Amino acid sequence: MTGTGFTTGESELILGHPIRRKLALFLILFGAFSLAVIVSSISQFLSEGLRAKEIFFSAGSVILVFGILKMASVRRVLAAFFNREMKQNIELADLPVRDVFLKNKEDLLLHLSIYETSSLAHQTFQEAIPHHEGLELVVLYIQRGDIIIRTHLYQTKLHEGDHLLIYGVKEVILKVFHDDISIMNERQKEHELPVNHIP
Question: What is the pairing mode between strands 137-144 and 147-149?
Fold first, then answer.
């Protein structure tokens, strides 16, 4: 009835967002059930004989509903309704990372792994990058094994095996951490692991 579906490439965009996920689920289920209703209705019409009045009435109703939904004013009202529902009912934690952090094309969220040869190893963030306060980036946390460090991030000495979650402007992050990212990429290529950042 609706022909609703999505390809593998679109699945992340659909399933990763709560509103899109609910709409897709409704439309797919509606399509399956409505197809069964249409088939049974056609079978009933054929068994009882064609009745032009009922056929024209049904077709007219469908065309009327479709025409109403295509009106610009109705679409604006529906869009406002869905936006309001999304703001009221969707928690920030339910939204995908891209919707929360990556507001612009310049934004980057980098999961940086520290290795023995990394420039940040055996130093604090403040020692390695003394002018970090003037840069458009921030360290969100340091993961050390099962421990998540969220306080005194810039004064905590970094060790091999630590993981930093860094957020900021893509150009700035790639410039400041160029050497560390190169080392991480080389190590991950050796183990056939993907680069762990969200462009």
Answer: antiparallel
